[in-house]
Design brief:
heterodimer; A: alpha/beta; Elongation Factor Tu (Ef-tu), domain 3; Rossmann fold; Ubiquitin-like (UB roll); 3 domains; seven-stranded antiparallel beta sheet; five-stranded parallel beta sheet; 7 helices; 19 strands; globular; B: about 170 residues; alpha/beta; 2 domains; five-stranded mixed beta sheet; 2 helices
Chain lengths: ~300, ~170
């Protein structure tokens, strides 16, 4: 995952007052292909250090001479979305990591039920293109705030007709999920309360976890500054309050495998040898957390953390 | 990055596990398919309003298709019978859209095990013995503990590499 793609912003437009869409063109050679549900990490040189944020690719995966992402301006963040909204201009160059997919379509489903909340529409834009090409059965339930987080809604209305169901407040998930034929799978992306509600409602109606697919926008949240010791090299690092442990390790020249940078994929799992750790991931079991941590989201809080690096 | 620990397997991953299931509380509908009345397992008595099909009934096949076609997500299927019956129904249920964890398999009847000859592709009934002769190509087969859920059969592979064409006479 050390490969970096150089891209240029070839177009940018506001899809809503808080959502900005970027079209990214390759600076050298064709861009790698991707599957629906894929994301890229965008490398952002913020004043407080390098940050990488993951954004879903919204393009049709079958025809991608370029990549498209849509970024919601976040009120509480470490500055990544502010940078993309306020600093980046058409013609600017950006570095991104190649596409990876942690939210793939289930290939043998016969009915795909998509439930998007706000900017959670982004992976489904690529889904819809792929599902239309496969002539698959699907329906999109889209919850948004009118005039604020309603990206793509006009386009979707024209394109999907009766397959689009829009909501401006939490839909009745029981109605969406009840009495569905056996080949149904549900996919949801959006804010954590929506994902929790979908998963709870599905479980209450007897849906096994394998039929319920979700992608959260997990990103590293700030915390307090802390120290780590790298046992193999004997080095000591100070991690700033706004920096993630993974970012600090990368700045120090270490290459840690990673995909989601949000505590879900498991790639960056690192062995630790003690310290006061605040585990923020949704990957490791409590037993595993005794020996491992996920540096993309988890942090120390006080006593120095020793890492097997 | 360190791999998570995994215990060394004491049996091949593909070997089916048969056991008495517990009723899945979260299921909203229980479907029971038994090979015969004699195949019925005790769990049926604990299920709330199960829909039961018996393989001995004349219209079993169309009723099975109808049941699977009308079933909705939240259904749990319990298959009871011998190994060959279990995997035949399992395959139909999977084609109808049921997931693995929505299907319980309960082997209540002894029966032959099916062996798939990897040389001629014939699936045949065999006993529990580890060596058989393929009835299709006459190759001596070792029946491996490698089970195909799709075929519902164990793989039979030539037991003597120096005699790969036992039945062929040049």
């Amino acid at each position: 995952m050390s490969a970096v793609l150089e891209v240029q912003v070839s177009a940018a437009r506001m899809l809503s007052p808080v959502v900005r869409e970027f079209t990214l063109q390759s600076c050298a050679g064709p861009l790698p292909g991707f599957s629906p549900g894929s994301h890229v990490q965008v490398h952002l040189p913020l004043a407080t250090g390098k940050v990488r944020n993951a954004y879903s690719l919204t393009d049709d995966p079958a025809h991608s001479q370029h990549y498209r992402i849509a970024v919601r301006l976040q009120d509480v963040s470490r500055g990544g979305s502010h940078y993309l909204h306020r600093q980046v201009r058409v013609g600017d160059r950006l570095q991104i990591s190649p596409p990876a997919n942690l939210f793939a379509l289930h290939s043998i489903a016969s009915l795909h039920i998509l439930i998007a909340g706000g900017i959670g529409i982004t992976p489904f834009m690529a889904y819809i293109a792929a599902l239309e090409q496969r002539q698959a059965h699907f329906e999109l339930h889209y919850l948004y705030r009118p005039g604020l987080s309603d990206a793509y809604v006009d386009e979707l209305q024209q394109r999907l007709g009766s397959r689009l169901h829009t909501y401006t407040s939490r839909p009745d998930l029981g109605r969406i999920l009840r009495d569905r034929p056996l080949g149904s799978h549900v996919y949801t992306c959006g804010p954590p309360p929506l994902l929790d509600a979908v998963r709870q409602q599905a479980a209450a109606l007897g849906w096994p976890p394998g039929r319920v697919h979700w992608e959260a926008f997990n990103a590293a949240q700030p915390g307090q500054a802390f120290d780590v010791e790298l046992l193999r090299s004997g080095r000591h690092l100070r991690i700033g309050a706004e920096q993630s442990l993974l970012e600090a390790l990368e700045s120090a020249g270490l290459q840690i495998p990673n995909l989601c940078r949000g505590g879900v994929c498991g790639q960056c799992m690192t062995r630790h040898r003690g310290g006061d750790i605040e585990h923020r991931d949704s990957f490791l079991s409590p037993a595993e957390q005794d020996g491992f941590l996920m540096p993309c989201v988890s942090r120390g809080r006080g006593q120095c953390v020793s890492l097997d690096l | 990055m360190t791999d998570r620990h995994s215990a060394a397997p004491d049996r091949l991953h593909s070997l089916p596990r048969y056991r008495q299931p517990l009723p899945r509380d979260t299921a909203t509908r229980h479907l029971v398919v038994m090979q015969s009345a004699a195949a019925c397992a005790p769990v049926v008595g604990a299920l709330e309003q199960p829909l039961v099909l018996n393989g001995e009934n004349a219209d079993f096949t169309p009723r099975l298709q109808q049941m699977l076609g009308r079933a909705t997500v939240g259904s749990q299927l319990y298959i009871m019978g011998d190994e060959a019956f279990i995997w035949r129904i399992h395959g139909e249920a999977r084609s109808a859209g049921l997931e693995d964890d929505e299907i319980d398999i309960i082997r209540t009847l002894a029966g032959p095990r099916l062996v798939y000859c990897v040389h001629c592709g014939l699936t045949q009934a065999a006993g529990p013995e580890p060596l058989v002769t393929c009835i299709g190509c006459a190759v001596g087969l070792e029946v491996r503990e490698h089970f195909s859920r799709r075929l519902g059969a164990y793989l039979g592979v030539c037991s003597n590499p120096d005699q790969p064409y036992a039945g062929a006479r040049p």
